[in-house]
Every structure is written in C-alpha cells, then in structure tokens.
Please model this.
Amino acid sequence: MKGGVRRSKESRTVLIIGAGMGGLTAAALLLKAGWRVIVLEAQTYPGGCAGTFFHRGYRFDAGATLAGGFDLTGPHTRLAQTLGLTWPVEDVDPAWVVHLDGHQIYQWTTREAWREERVRYFAKEEPFWQTQERVAEVAWAISQRYFPWPPLNLSDLLALAGTVTPAVIGMAPLAFRSVADLLPRSASPRLRTFVDAQLLISAQTTAGFANALYGSAALDLPRRGVRYVRGGMGELAKTLVAWIHAHGGEVHYRHPIEAVVVRRGRAVAVVTKAGATFEADLILANMTPWSLSHLLNGEMPVSLRRDVRRRSPTWGAFTLYVGVRAEALPSTVPTHHQVILDPSAPLGEGNSVFISISPVEDPTRAPAGMRAITLSTHTAVAPWWQLDPEAYLQRREVYTQRLLEALEAVFPGIKTALHLCLPATPRTFAFYTRRWQGMVGGFPQTSLWRARGPQTGIPNLWLVGDSVFPGQSTAGVILGAARVVAHLLGQPILV
Ligand SMILES: Cc1cc2nc3c(=O)[nH]c(=O)nc-3n(C[C@H](O)[C@H](O)[C@H](O)COP(=O)(O)OP(=O)(O)OC[C@H]3O[C@@H](n4cnc5c(N)ncnc54)[C@H](O)[C@@H]3O)c2cc1C
Model:
C-alpha cells in the first residue's frame, strides 16, 4: 500500500493502531460483531509489552512474564469463551516466590496453602489478610460483570448501578481509602515491605497510595488463575492474531503509524511512515495518551492536551534478558521470583527485581542446554533521557549489575553460567513499543476518581490498552478493551 490510499467498500471499517493485547482484544471483539477490522502494527510481531522476541535461539519475554486472570471467571477465560478459542497455557504453582529479608515466601495459588504460608511469616497480622480477602472477593465479583468505569454516559451509570449489591455498598467507603488504611498500626516492617512489593508489580504503586479496593484485588492476583504460556507470553497475542486472520480480519506488521488525520472534528484516516493512508469509520489507538498526542499533531483536542499536561509520567522498566546454561539452575525451580535486596530502601530502581525463568518443559524458549530469563525492575523514565551517550551507557551498566546481583542472590554462582545478557532501558521500550519516553504499565491505581477512561476528545477515536482503567496487565487490558467495544456496540460483549 506504499503511497496509496486504502478505502474500504464496507461502511464500518475500524483501524486499530497497535497489536498489543489491548488492540488485539478490541480487534477480535469488533470482528466478531461484524466490523471490518484492520490492525496496523509497527513491529514484526504482536504483543508489545507482552510480546516475546527471538534472539540467537532464545525466545525472551520482552516485558510481561506472568499470565494472571485465567480462573473460571477471569478476563482471559471470558475472552476465550466469547471468541471460542483456546489459550496455550499450563498451571503454575507457586505463582511466584518472594525473597525478602532472608526468607522465601511462596505465593501459592490455592487459598489454603497461601493461608498456611502467610501465617508462617505474618502470624500476628492475619486480620489484615482476612480483610484483604473479603474486599478482594467483592472487587473481583464486580470485575466479572460489565463495569464501565469511569462512566461516559447515562447508560454507563445505569450499568454501574446494576452492579450495586449490599456487599458493594458495604465496601463503598474503601473507594476513598488506601491499602495502608487497612494495615494495622502495629504492622511489622516485613509485612509493609511485602505488601508494598506486591502492589508495585500489580497496581504500579505502594500501600500508602494504592486504592484499597483496587489494591486488595491486586493482592489476590496469585489466587486468580496464574498460568505459564507455552512458547512465552507473546503466544497470547499470537493466538488472537490467528483468530483474527481465521475470521477475515487483517493484521499488518511493519506499519508504523506517524499521523492520525482529523477532519471536521472526526478521525478519518491514519498515515504510515512509508506514506500509505488507511481510511476508516472508527480508529482505536493501542497506546498511551502521550503517544497519541504526538500522532495528532496540530489537531489535538483541548481535553487530551490538558490530560497529557496534567498527568505525571508513569513508571518505566529496566529489563535484562539473560541466557544461562541450564545446569546452573535446579530443574524444578519455580518459574517466577521477586527479590527485594534491601527491605529498608525504596523499591524499584534495581532494589526490587522480578525474575522469570523459562521452564525446562518448554524447549522452545532457549537453545538446547540453555534457559531464558527475563529480569525487570521499575525505574523513573526521566533520568534515562537526560544523559549523554557515555553517561547513559554507564547508567545502563550499573542497572545491569544490580539486576545480576538480584539473580545471584536467588541462585548463587549463576553469573558464571551466563551465555548472553541484553539490557533494555526506557529508551529501548520507547523504540520497540513506541510508548512515549518508554512509560510502561499504565497509571498507578491510586484513586478510582482519577481513573482514566478511553475517551480522546474526538468522538470516533478511542484509546485501548493499559492507560485505560483497569490498567496494566494482559488481564487488565482485555477488560479495558472489552469495555470500549461494549460502549461502541451499546451492549456488554464478554460472556
Ligand atoms: C517489564 C514489564 C513487566 C510486566 N510484567 C507483567 C506481567 O508479568 N504480567 C502482566 O499481565 N503484565 C505485565 N506487564 C504489563 C503488560 O505487559 C502491559 O500492561 C500490557 O501488555 C500492555 O498492553 P497494551 O495493549 O496496553 O499495549 P502494548 O503492549 O504497549 O502494545 C502496543 C502495541 O502497539 C504498537 N504501536 C504503538 N504505537 C504504534 C504506532 N504509532 N504505529 C503502529 N504500531 C504502534 C506497539 O509496537 C505495540 O506492539 C509488564 C510490563 C512491563 C513493561
């Protein structure tokens, strides 16, 4: 389509910019609803932050490594039932192991095992966990219904009213409180650090800031259907692409979009880097509001301009993709680990590190005799953009060593078994995912009242992805995208 204009014969064509999990979910659901669907992706493979890339015989998960939300009523399960597809997943237990203060705390997936575990480490704080579980039960029950938050119109308000039960009314005050408000004053430093570390990876913020309803639900993630994806996380996106292709939709790789064309207040087309124009009735942008604002150039609506100016930057990620000789690891080692090196120091910036190891049972992930490991830590994006090339490389090396130290803390001696080690900074994420400044993971879930909806200020241009409530994770973006499609169709879409 170089330089040409692609005009659809049908009246209802939707263009989706980006083949992340949010874009692909929306694409599949709109295809099912009868729309003509075209997905345009800059990269050569789908999945974005939840993609898996190939490098020298390894299949490394680029960002997301842990697939949650596959229990009976979880977002992945509901999407699979709606579309009639099967995910290539297997059970994992424990969900992950937290290495804190010389202890290994197992996040077991069954409630009974987890209760025994937490009593072992947080014996005096059982009332906190019981409250958290009660709140989580209500919050997850709400998420299983159509919950168009934040509301965009009267019908959203009516749908929200339909989710109100006596249990929800009982929990309503928690909409104004933080997880820290649920912790006892006497909570031990170990409990506080543990809860902070869990919330940082699941709500993008710590207990003092995480909304109590959202945060309680997030703390329950290990008990909500965690799975291992065969072939790496990117297979979730590939499963959706295969479904879209099989049902007549189009997914085009190597199609970076440089501009969204707006005429008389409506988005009418997108233009690729190569100069091709695709016209459509509806456009969904699988990106952050900042990234979208750069595609709109002079046509940015006032509300979007205000939004990107007022909101603080979100987290970035520093990741390390490591190939190791398999004999350096026990063959039955749990797949995921979270390491807190210094419990008295702030989390992120290499002090808390998530480590995911390809299982021996999945030979597709690494060359024979090797295993693929992805390590990641939260990092502020701004400093990575303020450095000259030499200082940047120095900083990258410092973070590389910090993450290797975390790996070594869990598996002593592993550094001698390294085969390759690739670092990625927010600059790398900006390059590969086109997320402005490499901001990843969506907005911290601090206040339900500041939650961002999918609106852009242009009536036929919508955001999907982790900038939209309920935010980060493959499960979160499935729910967010399903909400946008339901809004467009005027009825809930997930079974
Ligand atoms: C280090 C890290 C670890 C994480 N760990 C987990 C985890 O364990 N479990 C979990 O569930 N979640 C995790 N997450 C979060 C999860 O990966 C994301 O929330 C989710 O994948 C985001 O999906 P998305 O649809 O918002 O878009 P993205 O994943 O950002 O995908 C957007 C896609 O759009 C494309 N695109 C963007 N702009 C353009 C353009 N102009 N033209 C064409 N294409 C474009 C990009 O190339 C990309 O493919 C992690 C994230 C990171 C960064």
Observations:
- Residues 389-410 form the longest helix (22 residues).
- The longest strand covers residues 316-325.
- Residues 1-9 have pLDDT under 50 and may be disordered.
- DSSP finds 15 helices and 20 strands in the chain.
